[in-house]
Design goal:
about 475 residues; alpha/beta; TIM Barrel; eight-stranded parallel beta barrel; 16 helices; binds beta-D-galactopyranose
Length: about 475
């Protein structure tokens, strides 16, 4: 494989999220989140694991940033735990929580690492779930906006990159459709209500940022959504339409409103009044509400037209409720898989980048997450993870091809900086480029961290000028 070469201002980063790494779940005044209690419900998380300690990043933050600096990383994407800064989700501020993030930001800057902050990575303050029905209640729009403004106010002098929400689809579908994630709600309709409120909350916070903070702070703001690629199983018109529909139900659901001001037509046609509608004013607020396109991408599946009754079919992998789409998904048995069972298909990443460029008028795209889990082991103090190195090389080489074809692709964040709490799968899945020993909490750079470091060092780096 030829050497990877990226534009000089291409941004190289890694990503994490608060609940997955911080621990200190009730330390220094932090309030509980829906994940703190979800983990207490027997049977919800593998082996009864919790994020109570996780990687103990709350107490090891400086050590972690030093490891990033050693790799030559240019950016670090992390999330703020809403209930650490606002223990009941609103009202009184927990200054100790603010101090933690302020120190983390300063530590990044000290090492020339750009902080990229995600405001919401799934750990909703428990009080908001109880008092307002969480994302199901319309009050969430204002509550999220107020929390976002607190962050812009306190951190915006130093933070120039904001992501409002991580993976709207997961919040809606896994949290409120399939009930696999907190707050464990199972419903066929709630995902669409929740998705609607997520979009409105995003738009509100972006409007506040643009009006009150962006002019003086000069940063950028966007949203990070997840999508797998859907390849038509055959070249028939029906299968091509099915793949397109699957992408619209997965990514178009959240990206069309942000770029075009409304939901995809196929969702409106199929869902009727189960899909909420935007007022003309809301459409205006939404359209253009992202300065960049944040994409989390992990895998690819084939999509085919489904002619039958889907009610009892396994909905795994469907971006949206299966029976609403009439799409059958499958994988090629010859595709290699990660320990998540996700197929490794680098060309799917290139096709998805191209699809986004074509549909949304070539916006600046950042891959805000891409990575893989394998059953890594320590041998003589080292962790050899050749499959992860191959994965990164494969995906990045397809990303490079996308840039060569004119896609405005600006940066890549490897998921994840270190092994961490993989939600309902607990600590059984290792996504890190650093190994974490969950007994001693020692971090060990895997071969993939060394590969990434060497790749970054070979790129000529020129910091992009401020937006
Ligand atoms: C994403 C999520 C991350 C991480 C990753 C691997 O959906 O944003 O928190 O868990 O998947 O499954």
């Amino acid at each position: 494989m030829s050497e990877l070469k990226f534009p000089t201002d291409f941004l190289w980063g890694t990503a994490t999220s608060a609940y997955q790494i911080e621990g200190a779940w009730a330390t220094d005044g932090k309030g509980p989140s829906i994940w703190d209690v979800f983990c207490q419900i027997p049977g919800k998380v593998n082996e009864g694991d919790t994020g109570n300690i996780a990687c103990d990043h709350y107490h090891r933050m400086k050590e972690d940033i030093a490891l990033m600096a050693d790799m030559g990383l240019k950016a670090y994407r992390f999330s703020i735990s809403w209930s650490r800064v606002l223990p009941t989700g609103q009202g009184e501020v927990n200054e100790a929580g603010i101090q933690f993030y302020s120190d983390l930001i300063d530590e990044c800057i000290k090492h020339d690492i750009e902080p990229w902050i995600t405001l919401y990575h799934w750990d909703l303050p428990l009080a908001i779930q109880f008092e307002y029905n969480g994302w199901k209640g319309p009050e969430i729009v204002q509550l999220f906006n107020d929390y976002a403004e607190l962050c812009f106010e306190r951190f915006g002098d130093r933070v120039k990159n904001w992501i409002t929400i991580n993976e709207s689809w997961v919040i809606a579908m896994l949290g409120h459709g399939q009930g696999l994630f907190a707050p464990a709600i199972t419903s066929n309709d709630d995902p669409y209500t929740v998705g609607h409120h997520i979009l409105l909350a995003h738009a509100e916070a972006v409007q506040s940022y643009r009006k009150k903070y962006q002019p003086s702070q000069g940063g950028q703001i966007g949203i990070a959504n997840n999508c797998d690629w859907r390849e038509p199983l055959t070249d028939t018109e029906a299968d091509r339409a099915a793949a397109e529909r699957a992408l619209e139900f997965f990514l178009g659901w959240f990206a069309d409103p942000v770029y075009m001001g409304d939901y995809p037509q196929c969702m409106k046609d199929r869902l009727g009044d189960r899909l909420p509608t935007f007022s003309p004013e809301e459409k205006k607020k939404l359209k253009g509400s992202s300065d960049f396109f944040g994409l989390n991408h992990y895998t690819t599946m084939y999509a085919a037209e489904n002619y039958g009754d889907m009610t009892n079919q396994n909905v795994y992998g469907n971006g949206g409720i299966a029976e609403d789409q009439h799409v059958t998904l499958s994988v090629d048995p010859s595709w290699e898989k990660t320990s998540m069972g996700w197929a490794i298909v680098p060309w799917g990443c290139r096709k998805l980048l191209q699809w986004i460029a074509d549909r949304y008028d070539n916006p600046p795209i950042y891959i805000t997450e891409n990575g893989c889990a394998f059953d890594d082991v320590v041998t003589d103090g080292k962790v050899h993870d050749p499959q992860r190195v191959d994965f990164m090389r494969g995906y990045l080489s397809e990303c490079q091809k996308a840039i060569e074809s004119g896609v405005n692709f600006k940066g890549y964040f490897a998921w994840s900086f270190m092994d961490n709490f993989e939600w309902a799968l607990g600590y059984s899945k290792r996504f890190g480029i650093h190994y974490v020993d969950f007994e001693t909490l020692e971090r060990i750079p895997k071969d993939s961290a060394k590969f990434y470091k060497s790749l970054i060092s070979k790129q000529k780096w020129v910091k992009a000028s401020a937006t």
